[in-house]
Amino acid sequence: MLRRLSYYLLSAVFVAGIAACGGQSHDHLDHDHDHDHAEETEHHDHAAEEAERGGEAKGAHTDEIILSAEKARAAGVKVEEVKPGTFHGVIHTSGKVMSASCDETTVVATISGRVQYKNHVSEGLKVSAGTTLFSITSVGMQTAEGDPVQRARIDYERAERDYTRAKILIKDKIISEKDFAVAKAEYEAAKLTYNGMKRTRSEGGVVVTAPRGGYVKQCLVNGGDYVEAGQPLAIITQNKHLYLRAEIPERRFNELNKIRGAKFRTSYSHRLYDIAEMGGHIQSYGRSAEVNNSYLPVIFEFNNTGDVVQGSYAEIYLITQDRSNVITLPLTALTEEQGIHFVYVQIDAEGYRKQEVTLGESDGERVEILTGVKQGDRVVTKGAVQVRLASAANAIPAHNHNH
pLDDT of 186-239, one tens digit each? Predict the structure, then answer.
């Protein structure tokens, strides 16, 4: 400012001197031209100095994200040193959790008739062995057989009379041993049938109980339906063992014999389950694709820990053979922007650098890093979002010198 004021004063004195000599018109124009040129030169010098200073600052701090050690600790930022190690191959697919067939029992109708629910039977209900589930009655129904309990009683009484008479006749050798044995067998069978029905008889008809404890997986009839003897009424599962069915594209058939484990995540939880930690193992895998389906099934059996819902869909990571000298990082180390993945590399106690990476296979917990980091780099594995927010806070707009 002082330099510019001095310039203006000298210019005024110079113009006054020229005017005194009578050369006002022509020299005044020369003065205006020189004044503009000098001011423009000063403006460019000033801009150059500012650009030089700004360039130095930008070059020193553009790639560095500043986050104090105290703030990093408060945000839970954790750092892991990159070390190549052993990692397995992964087949990423989807599938479904199913109940194990050995855990299921079918409840069937013991007689023909109209079925009624008891004890508010519904899917998911926990039942004990012997719990009454249904009652079946033929009262009021015009059937050729009539009431099965009454028919069983009549058959039993008739068989009892025949057997009593046969015991008398066999003593006098009026009937053969064979006829006596037949009469005895018919009597014992009729007695078992009648006693069984009488034991399950109630005012509402013959009751049907749960043959074992567990959970009602599925009700196969509705209240009021007519059922035949032997018809399935419900399925009870103990839910102790479950199956994980993974679907593999048939083009990867040659890799099926390399599968040795699996991890999966259900649609209702972020938890990653490991089949090996749940006492599981591979049960079988398909040798042929299903009709209208180009996928092969791979079945795992595992113990239910109590928080896995059968019938739920799952994202599955099939574990294959180990590979050595592989760089991996936890999935928590990654951030994504428009489909591009980044990690944050710690360069000093309070400085971090944003680094683009290329990903390989992932087992749902760790991911293979193909490019972007190397052995010895210190990468943020927890709190990457906080470092990203710090990066946005550091991006202060440049000062504008146009006033």
Answer: 999 988 877 766 665 655 578 888 888 888 888 898 888 888 888 999 988 887
Query: Measured between alpha carbons, how far is residue 291 from residues 162, 178, 296, 297, 346 in Å?
Result: 59, 56, 11, 13, 54
> What pLDDT is stored for residue 37 in this prediction?
44
Distance (Å, whole) CA 157 – CA 187: 8
CB of 245 within 8 A of CB of 262? no
Distance in angstroms (rounded) separating the CA atoms of residues 215 and 123: 8
Name residue, tokens 């927010």.
389
Contact 83, 381 (CB under 8 A): no
Q: pLDDT by residue (tens digit) across 52-68?
A: 444 333 334 457 888 88
Q: How far apart are CA 401 and CA 403, in angstroms?
A: 6
Distance CA 397, CA 403 (A): 16
The DSSP bridge partners found for residue 301 are: 243, 281
3-state secondary structure the chain: CHHHHHHHHHHHHHHHHHHHCCCHHHHHHHHHHHHHHHHHHHHHHHHHHHHHHHHHHHHHHCCCEECCHHHHHHCCCEEEECCCEEEEEEEEEEEEEEECHHHEEEEECCCCEEEEECCCCCCCCEECCCCEEEEEECCCCCCCCCCHHHHHHHHHHHHHHHHHHHHHHHHCCCCCHHHHHHHHHHHHHHHHHHHHHHHHEECCEEEEECCCCEEEEEECCCCCCEECCCCEEEEEECCCEEEEEEEEEHHHHHHHHHCCEEEEEECCCCCCEECHHHCCEEEEECCCCCCCCCEEEEEEEEECCCCCCCCCEEEEEEEEEEEEEECEEEHHHCEEECCEEEEEEECCCCEEEEEEEEEEEECCCEEEEEECCCCCCEEEEECHHHHHHHHHHHCCCCCCCCC
Residue 378 in contact with residue 80, Cβ under 8 Å? yes
Distance of alpha carbon 330 from its chain centroid, rounded?
17
pLDDT greater at residue 34 or residue 172: 172
pLDDT tens for residues 92-105?
Answer: 999 999 888 777 88
